[in-house]
Write a structure and sequence with these properties.
It holds the Pfam family sCache_3_2. With about 550 residues, this protein is α+β, with helices and mostly antiparallel strands. The chain has three domains: about 10-165, Beta-Lactamase, CATH 3.30.450.20; about 220-305, PAS domain (Beta-Lactamase, 2-Layer Sandwich), CATH 3.30.450.20; about 365-545, Heat Shock Protein 90 (2-Layer Sandwich). It is built from 15 helices and 14 strands. About 30% of the residues are buried.
Amino acid sequence: MKRPHWPRRVFAQLLLSQTVVTVGVTAVTAGLFLAPVSSELDRDAMQRALSIAQSTAADENIALAAQDRDSAAAQRDAEQIRLATGASFVVITDLDGIRLSHTDPARIGQRVSTDPEPALSGRSVTAIQQGTLGRTARGKVPLRLADGRIVGEVSVGISDDSIRRRMLGMVPGILLCAGAGLAAGLAATLLLARRLKRRTHNIALADISALLVEREAMLHGIREGMVALDRRGRIRLANDEAFRLLALPADCVGRPVDEVLPPGRLADVLAGRTEGADLPAVLGDRVLVVNRTTTEQDGAVVTLRDRTELESLVRELDTTRTLTEALRAQDHEHANRMHTLLGLLELGLHEQAVAFISEQSGSHAAVAAKIAEQVQDPHVAALLAGKAAVAAERGVRLAVTAGSHLPDAALDPRALVTVLGNLIDNAVDSLGAPGSPAGGTVEITALAAGSTLLLGVEDNGPGVPAELRTRIFDEGWTSKEAPAHRPRGLGLAMVRRLVERAGGRIAVDRGPLGGARFTVELPEALHPEALHPAALAEAAVEPALEGAP
């Protein structure tokens, strides 16, 4: 025979357990109610027996019959009273406790089965006692003559059967109330179980435990950050990756997003103020892609992907592609020069061929030499040389202003290349936009003032409208069409973060060339011991950046 199994479903377990509890509570309540009722019925029966006994003892004829030991008269009067009152027995005794009346005439003349002394001594007594007629509620009083002398006792009893009948008469009402309470409890339990069934999707209790364990393992094992928020925007949970990516404090659970994250696009996305899919955001030096999904309970689950390494790889790929394009442009230009030189030689124009070779061989060398002379930092010089070649192929002239000078003293050349490279790319891209002049120009200014580095990038393109000069630094905002391999709207945001992290500032306005001019100030960006005298550098700052904000 198979043993019955405890239900596995949550709602079934709740229904069964609550039913058992409700039935048990109802039964206990009914029992606790019946217990005092039984005691109350006993007390009521004893008081009723005492009242009958007192009424009987007040009859002078019965007292005289007890004095004369006239059992016939006493039996007659006692039976009349018993039948009239419904008592189980009315027993009259003399001073020796000998019965003068009894419901069983055969017991007349015998001593009573219970102690008559308390009543014969003048006291009234009530009690539940076991006698010849079974368990009864009794009332005993002394039987007195008119002069007050005690001549016997009157004992009246009401049987337990009578009390039980009264109690049984009350049971249907008690059971009806208990049944109504039980029905209401079962109905409430059923409704609660059905609601729980919907909320738990009818899964087994063991499955809930397994799901919790699996959820914890999954949350802390995946490489994506995950943050759960309640309807008020407070953090409910966050996995290890979210703590790492967002630099969350240990006590972030239960706190609003705006308390644990700095103001910006990332906080706006997490709080739901900015909507969209795969939204890029910058936090410190990290590039994150954020997605926010609203739950049925008006909460939200936010996933975070770290694209910092990918962005680095993409930027390296862009740099490689830039160099490739520069080499391709040089190769194309070299082929054209070789064809031109071959034509001059075939035509016998030897002097013109020599002049052509001299002129062409010195052009690129002159550009590279000029950049190297003004920009001594090898990383920045290499960047400018590559950008100049690519810009030239796109019909844009990229030049370093005459008063520029950047010594080989940068504390963080990588950050400097990122800042300058992004600004140059934006300038060159803007010259390909509608409304740009045919001959585009991008000018770069780099100056050292003590340990402070001043950078300027300006072009003769359409410029940046005044109302957008703050917004262009927001993460994810762009006026250009995003390529397939990467999102737009991160370059200037990263530039601003890098500049602000270094304690500097960046601004944009309209420059002398008529287009946009970006001005960057980076304090403590250069090694002071490797600089030229500060006075000379500071003297060159004003003419180079005149009008910069």
